[in-house]
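Justification of resources, computational component.

The compute hours requested in this renewal are based largely on the per-chain cost of generating structure records like the one below. Each record pairs the submitted sequence with a full structure-token output. That output is archived, and it is also reused by downstream analysis tasks.
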Amino acid sequence: MTILADLLSTMFERRYRPFGQDRPSTRPIAALTADLLGSAGETTEQALAQDILGKFASLDDAGKLAFLQHLARDMNIDPEIVRSALDAYEQAPSKATYRAFLNAAEPQRQELIRRLNRAPGATGALVRMRADLLSLAGDDPELAALDLDFRHLFASWFNRGFLVLRPISWESPAHILEKIIAYEAVHAIHSWDDLRRRLQPKDRRCFAFFHPAMPDEPLIFVEVALTKGIPGSIQALLAEDRAALNPEACDTAVFYSISNCQAGLASISFGNSLIKQVAADLAAEQAGLKTFVTLSPIPLLTKWAALNNIKMPETPAMRRALAAHYLLDAKGRGDAPYDPVARFHLGNGALVHAVHADADSSANGVANSGGVMVNYLYDLSAVSQNLENFATKGKIVASAEVTALAKTFVNATTSER
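The structure output for this chain reads:
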């Protein structure tokens, strides 16, 4: 009985020990990866995966970088084998030659990542591993290629079909609420009272996407205010002494903060699905909601102005005009909009609806955009067409007011020359 009890205890400890704690194996992590790729048994495979993930989590940055470089360089494709397999398929297309080409074209590290993911709790550990990769990679092209493998796999594992939309309320578990506070990336939540003001009133909503493999970790969340009309000030929207509205009397849903929570899921897009799903759910819940807009920051406006030797205007009207010109005309890499928030919402099919001066009086708001904010409008009947025009033609759809504001700034600066 003692031998059996010891064996069961060891098996239980190995299966449920959290990643990051010391592991019994003293073998090098690279040797363990070779064992994992050569393993044919599920039990052995899971144990090896847990050992590898646990060892990686316990490494310092230098050790993590060395392991990631091992994956990038020693588990890469062999170009000669890929070329030979492609030639064979081209000369005699068949199931066998196509399979051989696929096997040659996929780096061994992709299969390693899949096998690592079979261990309990491994998905979150792999997301954290990619976060380490992104922070340590620098300009290393081989590590950039490794990141493409993570992105390729994560795009499948975290596609919309696997995500679960859950409302977050003041009654949600404390460990989830703590993460909402920690992950809020747009308008900092300074206290539990501050969080309660965003979640408890009847005219406030919050929704988050979760993945079944990471049930206690929000992937992205959006905070929503139900209002009468379209707001033009974030301070007014979040004021401590504001009176809550009856949701039945509201006609507008305002997405005022969207925060990605997992650094290891950067470039894996959830925001598009999140906003459209929440808008559809709110429309079904509250028949009176007819308008769906954001109240968004313009985070790079002052930086762009400084780079182009443009002085931030003193008058609110010209600050609005500058912001409109920036949003419609300023271009970055690939002729895409310079502003990252604009790229996100325009890429979701929204249009630039209105620009507001003195809309964000916070230190960050003033420093980043001179206090200017923007409403992006989600017209659910037009988002698909807007998205197609933006994706295929680079066309930015804007209201007549914003278009006129942009022209005002261009005309004013032209006349000064």
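The chain has a mean pLDDT of 92. The radius of gyration is 26 Å.
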